[in-house]
Fold:
Amino acid sequence: MSNKEKKSKGISRRKFLVRGGLGTLGVLAVGTYVFRNPLRRSMLEMAETMAPTYMGSGTEPNLWFELTKENKVIFHSPKVEMGQGSFTSFAQMIADEMDLNIDQITVIGAATKTGVVDAMSTGGSLSVGGLWQPLRELSATMREMLKIEAAKKLGIDVSSLSTKEGIISGGGKTMTYAEVANDITEWDIPDTPELKPMKDYKFIGKPVKRIDLNAKVFGDPIFGLDAEMPDMLLAAIIRPSVVGAKFKSADTTKAEKMPGVVKVVLMDDWVGVIAKSYAQALAAKYKINVDWTIEKRYTEEDLRNMLQVGKGNQSITQKAGTALNSNDNDVISMEFTSPIGAHAQIEPNGAVADYNNGDITIILSTQVPGATQKVVAEAFDVDTEKVNIIPTYLGGGFGRRLNTNHAVQAVQLSKEVGKPVKYIFTRKEEFQHDLFRPPTHHIMKGKLNNDGYLEALEHHYASGDVAVNALIMPRILTSVLGTDLGAMRGGQIMYDKVPNHRAVQWHTTLPFATSWWRSLGLLANTFAIESFVDEMAIRAEKNPVDFRLASISNEGNKKRLYDVIKLAAEKGKYNDKPVNGRAMGFAASTDANSPAAHVVEVSIEDNSIKVHKVTCAFDCGVVVNPDQVKAQCEGSIIMGMSGAMFEKMTLEDGELTPTIYGPYDMALMKHAPKQIDIHFIQGADIPLPVGEPPMGPIGAAVSNAVRRLTGKRLTDLPLKLS
Amino acid sequence: MKIAFTINGSSQTVDIEDGNTPLLWVIRDILDLKGTKFGCGKAACGACTIMVEGEEVRSCSYAVKFAEGKKITTIEGLGTPENPHPVQQAWIEEVVPQCGYCQPGFMMATAALLEKVPNPTDDDIDQNIINVCRCATYYRMRKAIHRAAEIKNNSNS
Structure:
């Protein structure tokens, strides 16, 4: 386990400031930039282990907390809430260290103008782990600050004061936090107090209900597309349907005469329609004829020619022992593929923007408020501070909103009409201008020793961009000597006892944008590796679970993987005889230092694969909220099934298709397993990534079950029987 | 043209140029009820599901002119935190939502299903609840649908 996060400094007095005029008490703190050592080896290790590190935004103090007159705390979160439940975990941490109840805490996404936003993004399953140390330290410091002032006001020694539910008591007297903070202008700031031991926490480690549950059950207007500004107009944009098409000219005469249309805007590479209502903007949009310059209409065949092992930029990302000799007759080799995947988050992208003499305000669903602020400031040549990005709750993130540069178009439209404008993507735009999960091609090679165990295992894989060319990260972090660190996720061989193993990446930038999709390369890479390892076990006539365990060290950090494999097999009854007509499938993965293993129970019904039950063993270290970690596992498993069994975008005559749900086949209610059991192992003393790692094994586990049922090895995603 | 209907128990008249405007946009942008969501605009995802005369309707593909004289219910009219509908009660008990965007559509579809099928089987649920949830909260949703039926039937007896 990496202990990098332990080296992070506490929130020292120098970094802590208090400001009046924001409710009763506004607490500001300076972000701590922990990330360092951009050397290749540690970069690759970082990508492997993803030690959660909060990357604060620089050296200026930023607002973290407000304490209101009603004795409530508002936490301005540097991370956004996109369903992963981090806001609830943050509230648990604050409640425990500040001695508050959960309902005394409100969490909102920090706006760039007033709060601290994570310099990288909300993603990588790093929110809870990343804020684990700093947020508890800030909360404990605030509690102590309040006690110091209460001691002065009550004339009691601070050591005889106690705190509970936002009230300070001692010597028979009590004061609320708000009463203490009222009229204090000069605060004494103590050194960072020692944090409470885990056993004393009342909320951390408990299944606290999501703090946004009521808002989401009663339909509150909390999402980006729900936002409004006074006097706002609505807009639609025309983008090309054909990959790589360039705007030539447009006839907008008819559109300009359509009801409600305020202005049609012709830009260098897009056309915008601004109207009084969205329906009117859309109706006018469809009356515009655009001429595009189309140099080439790409097809699936072009794609497969571009993207294959042996083409593009080669990098060896893992190497132990010697490489397999292709003339060796004992080498077994298999090929696997995965298709282009769409994010298909249900809330379309969009933004409400106001351009007011160089002051810019944008409300939107984004995983990258900081990066969006920079892009907009550059586009309109204004200082960064002039751009305020207000993030809302996200109607799904999944990596799609790690690039929200469409904010620039919304601002441009607002500038054109001198009023706030809300721009909304159509679903077709979503499907054709997604930043797709790249297609992949894999060649697995392996060799058994005389005892029938793995002597060599190699993963050669080709992928489009994931981290390379991404908006959010400094170039050094996306690519080290040409390796795409996102495509690499799950691509390394985790079987450390196999004496000869290696992973070789072939990276190609495709003619359409590909990028982050929940778990990045993990789903496809694990599908290839774990399908192949299963196949090798079958050829060696060994139990696939025992076969795997024989190749993993039962010590050090690898013991965590060893343990989840054993636990999943035991709890999922992998070795028991299944119900007639069903078979068990097994697979495991280690992503972002959180190992997961699944046993699935599968049958074939009407020539399609039916998953009845999934048993998952998962080690994500400290579980801050067991109910929500389970929810993330359930969601990851079913979304992973969707990606592995149904979803596929194709290139037809230059267009990415399909462009609507339904034809873009996804897992629905009827496909969801009727039983999902999650078992935790705590193999680390900090919270490790949760949202993505449990997705890893699902595709391979299902495919391995199908192999047992039918004797047939499926090698392409989505998994289809014929 | 003027179109009159009842929404969440109150009478409304909207004045709109084009009677073919999807009811979704009237609900969201004229009546300012933002709980009904835009997802695809083609009745393919169900995020915009409401009830018209107790029937499940995907409002993105339902012209406002057809709402004349009808009784409409949106998520805001289903229940309140103080007095939740059995479906909302069950959704809270099972902690169903993740990102939450598609959830009003699912809850409306479930409420409509329970009106017709008070005790839905798993098969009834599979056949009738066909909205799309990208967070894939289906596992908890199924439990919540069964639980909602139980709450509803208990309160009726």
Remarks:
- Chain B touches chain A through 56 residues (CB under 8 Å).
